[in-house]
Amino acid sequence: MKFVDIIIDKLTNSICNKITGDTFDTNVLRIYNGNELKKLHDWNFNWEYEYRYGEVFKLTITGNEKIIQGLISIEDKGNSIFINLIENAPFNIGKNKTYDGVAGNLFAFACMLSSDKEYSGFVSFVAKTNLIAHYKEFLGARQIGSSGLMIINEKEAKILINKYFK
What we know:
By secondary structure, the protein is α+β, with helices and mostly antiparallel strands. It has helices at residues 35-38, 47-53, 102-116, 132-139, 154-164, and strands at residues 15-17, 23-24, 26-30, 55-61, 70-76, 81-88, 99-100, 123-126, 142-143, 149-152.
């Protein structure tokens, strides 16, 4: 089983350069050619493998679509969107990262996709145990049962969508 294991640094209106404070508009683009993923080095997950089994999308800065800021793999469950994996680019992890807001942007995208499919923005994912409280605080996610299964419901989804996709 895959667990979502990403820290939401902060919710921004876009992605924000940590040094300059400049914000940049972003695009989330579906990856249609797995060869693009072969070029990724130092990522924690095998995105080529993930591409074979789910829909993979990349977050890029508008006008600079060749540099991937983060990736998300989703599955359409017919009544919600399930996040299989989500990851920041290696240069967007840790205290020396380049941009804040990447993970929040990708979660907001999943909510927007759910809303576009008329699933009311509902998104689910399985969180690592040590991050459940973090996702409750930053995303307004709710834990279902005693497992790490979490959902983002309509109200919280709208907040995320409005924050990132005006």
